[in-house]
Design goal:
The protein is built from 11 helices and 11 strands. By secondary structure, the protein is α/β, with parallel strands linked by helices. The chain has one domain. Helix 4 crosses helix 8 (285-297) and helix 8 crosses helix 9 (307-315).
């Protein structure tokens, strides 16, 4: 093991030149990073899933995707810049078959990279390690971040590829307003009809166009200069700098637990923000560099679920919520599919038109005063609590046919 060539995070930060946000080169490659920790227990089912995922992503696509494991070592007293210690901890923390795809880090490394931030835990700052990863491997245009308890009932490479292609086709016109609500198929003939409806709601140029109007008070927006609003096809063919798997909502006035968690931005009260539940996203190299640059310069931060979303909003980058099928294991009143769709609409959408999935006590957010406002989320196949995802996964792995689904979390062994 001591003679092995190991992937490592750099031991020292550079002068910032390698984090230039003006770099435009592309390679067409995407990293898929699994977030785990050194004491993680791998079940047989977990191992089978990981082997299948690596085959589908890295091998079947000829290297278009490449899978990595980002391993959080909980002991911050360990010097992971020491070759012997690093090799020893890697051998103890990662199964032999995954040694070539694993990178170790701990909060001590993050503190060295971002000394002004002051917060390095994965719950609040999950993207710091991803930022350093992107610096270490600049050959990847994009990084998909997946949690170890996520599952896909379908070919992972196909699903992630289709998500990127679909996001690329989306126009920027009223994109933030579409992002702020769930797409419910039972209520619309197609996504195109849904999109046209949102355009009608926000006629007379009421939607966000480019960076948020207040962004200039907090940062120097680095996104593309928006054309005249008559260019309704602006953004079509443009890669999304951020892809989320849940609506991008404004957390202000939702009473979300982390609504007031803002550090380094002044005045914090008026900071334009967005957030998306579950930090499983595709982020671009440029977006990760913009976040890293600001955190290194000023130490400004918001919590994980709001980090790439807020920076995309401030800089005017293209961010897209990609709808995917979410199953609910519950009885819905109503006899027709459309009636059931209206009931879901009532359950999911409680906010104003521009932030329909948000608003006070948004259904999917944990609020200290009431807990979870909409308990039917506990029966969903995609959420941050263990709902119906484990049942769907075990039935799928036992031969039951199902639609292609993104499942989360699947924690049982």
């Amino acid at each position: 093991m001591s003679h092995r060539s190991l992937m490592r995070f750099p031991s020292q930060t550079d002068d910032g030149s390698l984090w230039s946000t003006s770099e435009t080169r592309t390679t067409g490659r995407t990293a898929v990073v699994l977030r785990t920790w050194n004491a993680y227990q791998y079940s047989d089912n977990q191992l089978a899933w990981m082997r299948a995922m690596i085959t589908e992503l890295s091998l079947d696509t000829g290297g278009h995707f490449q899978v990595f494991m980002l391993v959080n070592v909980k002991d911050n007293s360990l010097d992971l810049f020491d070759d012997h210690i690093y090799s020893q901890v890697l051998e103890q923390s990662v199964l032999k078959e995954f040694l070539d795809v694993a990178l170790l880090y701990n909060e001590a490394i993050l503190r060295k990279w971002y000394p002004k931030v002051g917060e390095y835990g994965a719950q609040d700052q999950m993207y710091q390690a991803l930022q350093v990863f992107s610096h270490t491997f600049p050959e990847f245009d994009f990084v998909w971040q997946l949690e170890m308890d996520a599952r896909f009932t379908g070919n992972v490479a196909e699903m992630l590829t289709h998500a990127g292609e679909w996001a690329k086709r989306q126009p920027r016109k009223n994109l933030w307003e579409r992002n702020g609500r769930w797409f419910i198929p039972a209520l619309w003939e197609s996504y195109a009809s849904f999109s046209a409806h949102v355009d009608e709601e926000f006629e007379n140029n009421k939607g966000i166009w480019g960076s948020h109007p207040y962004a200039q008070f907090y940062i120097d927006p680095q996104g593309p200069k928006p054309p005249a609003r008559t260019h309704s096809s602006w953004g079509v063919g443009e890669e999304a700098e951020l892809i989320t798997l849940a609506p991008l909502i404004d957390p202000v006035s939702t009473k979300w637990t982390y609504e007031g968690t803002i550090r380094g931005f002044k005045p914090a009260l008026n900071l334009p923000r967005r957030m998306a539940i579950v930090s499983m996203t595709r982020t671009s190299r440029r977006l990760l560099r913009l976040i890293s640059h600001e955190q290194r310069k000023s130490g400004s931060w918001v919590v994980s679920e709001s980090t790439p979303e807020t920076w995309s909003l401030l800089h005017g980058l293209k961010a897209v919520y990609v709808p995917h099928l979410v199953a609910f294991n519950m009885e819905l009143p109503g006899e027709t599919l459309q009636e059931q769709g209206r009931e879901l609409d009532h359950m999911l959408h409680k906010g104003p038109a521009w932030n329909l999935a948000g608003g006070e006590h948004a259904g999917l957010l944990w609020c200290p005063d009431v807990g979870l406002p909409e308990h039917r989320w506990l029966n969903a196949s995609y959420f941050y609590w263990a709902g119906d995802a484990p049942r769907v996964w075990w039935e799928y792995t036992n031969g039951t046919c199902t639609y292609p689904l993104v499942l989360h979390p699947v924690k049982s062994n």
